[in-house]
Design goal:
Elements (H helix, E strand, L loop, with lengths): L10 H14 L2 H24 L5 H19 L5 H4 L2 H18 L7 H32 L9
């Protein structure tokens, strides 16, 4: 006789889902997610806002990085348990945003592009680190609450 095990009914899985739900309903996490989404949208539009759209290589780079960052960070609230690791990809995007004026082809490291990308990159990096730390902190705080911890 074979019995079928359904993991979706496991108590540990239900506890993990409730921990992630608590993390996403935290007002601070929601504020960081909103700031991160705005950062991604600004990064995508920054060549036209800050006035360096004539530097095509960096303008296209910022557009792609901004869209990628917004996509990475916008899914964290709705599907936190599956996408919180994307915050680390967003960290990489933030770091690349900082160094982009010096590594993108062409002479694009003007004062305007450097100031814009460094400020936006630092904000993007801090938001992504906050989301990654929030995910890690919730997992660390959640340890030891199971039945084995009641001994």
């Amino acid at each position: 006789m074979t019995t079928r095990s359904d993991i979706t009914q496991h108590p540990d899985l239900a506890e993990m889902r409730s921990r992630f739900e608590r993390a996403t309903t935290n007002p601070a996490a929601q504020a960081v997610e909103a700031l991160a989404l705005l950062t991604g949208v600004y990064l995508a539009a920054s060549p036209w806002i800050a006035g360096f759209s004539g530097l095509t290589a960096l303008a296209v780079t910022n557009l792609i990085l901004g869209i990628a960052y917004a996509v990475c960070m916008s899914g964290l609230g709705s599907a936190y348990e599956r996408t919180h690791a994307m915050a680390w990809a967003a960290c990489a995007i933030g770091l690349f945003t900082i160094i982009a004026p010096w590594v993108v082809a062409g002479n694009v490291d003007t004062v305007r592009t450097v100031v814009n990308n460094v400020i936006v990159g630092v904000v993007a990096l801090l938001c992504a680190l906050a989301m990654a730390a929030g995910a890690r902190g919730e997992r660390v705080r959640g340890r030891g609450r199971g039945p084995s911890a009641m001994t």
